[in-house]
Specification:
By secondary structure, the protein is α/β, with parallel strands linked by helices. The protein has helices at 38-49, 68-71, 74-81, 91-95, 99-115, 121-134, 211-224, 241-264, 270-277, 285-301; strands at 3-8, 17-22, 29-31, 60-62, 84-87, 145-146, 152-153, 156-163, 172-176, 181-185, 229-232, 307-309, 315-317. Helix content is 39%, strand content 17%. Strand 9 (172-176) and strand 10 form a beta hairpin.
């Protein structure tokens, strides 16, 4: 396939992250970078060396999305290679936020967690601190060239850009039609479902993106495509993709039904519903709250439940 997978260690529970060297064009292109760590950088050096490549030989870096396990080493790699960075138009401000932008992002999450029923400012401030601290794991390098749906990747014109939002709103995949290869990032993973994380709107004042609904649409997009092998950001390659996506849809639908049942049973706030859906995972509050809000957005849009704002600024579901 002229595509080389390099698995890099991460400090996260998900384990290794897969980055890919594209060797089928007139430029050496790395898809994703791994985390910002010397251990990850050394593992990348060794993986590249196995195919006779050095970091300094890289011409381009493509980011599937801005998360730290996919973009954290960006600054170091750009400094060593001078490679141009390609990503979605939203990615630049996510990996290089201004202080004002970071404050707005923190304020957004503070408000969301209040709306979901965390009226105590203490837990909310801890989550907001994590939002700010996450930027410490990011690679501080900007995006040189933006990629949009349908673009051909420079230097690798057989690869077409597919916009696959949901897990993040800047998420891109790459598709090579001639042999049906799809570089997936975190859009679809074999071992676990991808979380459709809560995100603020890209433009201030616009409606908050309903990330789970957006993710389901993007899954349908790749479901309807014809491909033979998917190269994901974690775990092993994917081949029986329609079966896997059907499994993901079924799990989402089951959890949505449980959310509606929780509301019928008298659970009125987001945090109460979250505790019902994920009683053993409340230590992973940012993850499970994203999942819960996604289900509530979806069921509200479907007319299965309603939502109103009480005097404390908390959403009440009925």
């Amino acid at each position: 396939m002229n595509i080389y997978k390099i698995a890099l260690p991460t400090p996260f529970a998900i384990g290794d992250v897969n980055v890919y060297l594209l060797g089928d064009g007139d430029r050496l292109t790395l898809v994703d970078t791994g985390t910002k760590s010397r251990v990850g950088e050394r593992a990348l050096e060794l993986g590249l060396a196995e195919v006779g490549v050095r970091v300094e030989d890289l011409s381009q870096i493509v980011l599937t999305h801005f998360h730290a396990d996919h973009a954290g080493l960006l600054e170091r790699l750009v400094a060593r290679s001078g490679a141009k960075v390609y990503a979605h138009p939203l990615t630049h401000d996510l990996i290089l936020p201004t202080e004002a932008g970071l404050q707005k992002r923190a304020a957004f999450f503070d408000e969301i967690y209040l709306r979901m029923g965390l009226v105590d400012a203490g837990p909310r401030s801890q989550i907001v601190a994590e939002v700010k601290g996450y930027q410490d794991d990011m690679g501080r390098a900007g995006v040189d060239v933006v990629l949009q749906e349908g673009d051909l990747l420079p230097g690798h014109e057989k690869w077409r850009v597919i916009y696959t939002p949901g897990h993040s709103q800047d998420h891109l995949s790459l598709y090579r039609e001639e042999d049906g290869v799809l570089v997936l990032g975190d859009h679809l993973l074999q071992n676990i479902s991808s979380n459709a994380f809560i995100e603020p709107p890209a433009v201030e004042g616009e409606e908050r993106p309903k990330t789970l609904m957006i993710y389901r649409d993007a899954l349908r997009k790749v479901y309807d495509m014809e491909w033979k092998v998917g190269l994901p950001g974690h775990f092993e390659e994917i081949r029986e993709y329609r079966e896997l996506i059907d499994k993901r849809f079924a799990a989402q639908e089951k959890r949505a039904a449980r959310a509606v049942e929780a509301v019928k049973a008298g659970k009125r706030t987001g945090i109460e519903i979250c505790q019902t859906l994920f009683p053993k995972s409340m230590n992973l509050l940012p993850l499970v709250m994203s999942e819960t809000l996604g289900q509530l957005d979806w069921m509200t849009a479907e007319g299965k439940i309603t939502r109103e704002l009480n005097e404390q600024g908390v959403w009440v579901f009925r």
